[in-house]
Amino acid sequence: MKKTRKIIAAVMAIVMIVAAIPMTAFAADYTIALNETKSVTAPKDAYAELTFTPEADGKYVVYSDNGGKDDEIDPYVYVYDAFGTRIASDDDNDYTWDYNFCCEFEAEAGEVYYLQFCAYDDTVTYDVTVVNYAEISHQPTADEPYVEIAPEVNASYQWYKVREGEAEITDKYIVKVAELDTVSTYSESVGWTPAHEPAIYDEDKNYYHFFWIYLEEGDKLTLDINGTVEECIGIESDEDYIDYELTASETNGSYTFEVEYTGVYAVYCYGEPGLTAKATVNGTYLEKVDGATDATLTPDEKCEYICIVTYDAGRYELSDKVEITEVICEHSYTDGNDATCDLCEYNRAENCGCKCHQGGIAGFFFKIVLFFQKLFGQNKVCACGMNH
């Protein structure tokens, strides 16, 4: 009997010890929180699943990072609500044109959402992140030239001047370069060397992506190709798609696209290795303002401006245009003898009360005094900054 009691006591002690250990010590964590990044392994012909429970109503984004291994990892995602209804899905990222996904979905506070992560390849592992979907909550105005986003998330800013006319497209006039297996580059001599990767449907063919560019309704974009284009050459935005379907390869051709919708267009083609292109735009285009990477604009010219806000996963948003009619210029001059500002039309000599800028007898005698001062090495500088 005593032996039996000892056994029962030992069993009860073990039960109590096990009960005191949190269940999480044994169970894997199949949840993902807001602003959390997790590594998932998607089995071939199946999926990995995480649940997401938001604390607030709103719009969210789940995106992947395959580590730049487009040739090995091509992920996609499905989002289901608690009733098993698919509410969103995504394959390739429309903002970056790589093989990662960037999926937007609406969610309610306290509800459970099931995120199913898949891949077209064999069993692969990649990172996934859930973030708030942010957007511009304050558009820039002449009195308040800044953008504000809500809710607060990681974001970068770039301001552009809005230009009109005809211009060769350099790296100052694009929204961003293309990044595939290589990155597109611009040089004054050859124009654009596009980003390259093997075509998805046929690895013997070559796919090229030049850049993203902002175009407005009625604008014309011309590509003068140096090299051979095969199958097609085209441009594409969220609302517009224009391409030339080629029945045979063409060498050193010129192609003009007239757009029907305002937006950011990707420029691409299929072709033989080594092709380059000169590109020109006729209409409205953007000119990057160097150093203007804050949410608040410091204008240096009377013109229209626009800001492009870039969020996580490469998602971007364009602000409204803002026309600046007054500029506080921090005047700049080529040298001490230059009276007119290099940045504006301000003439410092005309706005200076010094006798060195005056005519008549007083100005004449003052210049004689200055002459003798210079003769004896006494170089003077006027209150306006010009050399006497």
**Estimated share of beta-strand residues:** 35-45%
Mean pLDDT: 85
- The total strand number stands at 26
Termini separation comes to 117 Å
Determine the structural class based on helices, strands and strand pairing. mainly beta
- Residues in helix, %: under 10%
* Low-pLDDT windows of residues: 1-27
Report the principal-axis shape.
Answer: globular
How many domains? The number is 3
Order of helices and strands: HEEEEEEEEEEEEEEEEEEEEEEEEEEH
- State the helix count: 2
Radius of gyration: 31 Å
> What's the main sheet like?
7 strands, antiparallel
Question: What order do the helices and strands come in, and which of them pair?
Answer:
Elements: H1 2-20, E1 37-42, E2 48-52, E3 58-65, E4 75-80, E5 86-90, E6 102-107, E7 113-119, E8 124-132, E9 135-138, E10 148-150, E11 156-168, E12 176-177, E13 185-187, E14 191-193, E15 195-198, E16 206-215, E17 220-226, E18 228-236, E19 241-245, E20 250-251, E21 254-258, E22 263-271, E23 276-288, E24 304-310, E25 316-318, E26 322-323, H2 360-375
Antiparallel strand pairs: 1-8, 2-7, 3-6, 3-8, 4-5, 4-7, 9-10, 11-23, 11-24, 12-16, 13-14, 15-16, 16-22, 17-21, 17-23, 18-19, 18-20, 18-22, 24-25, 24-26
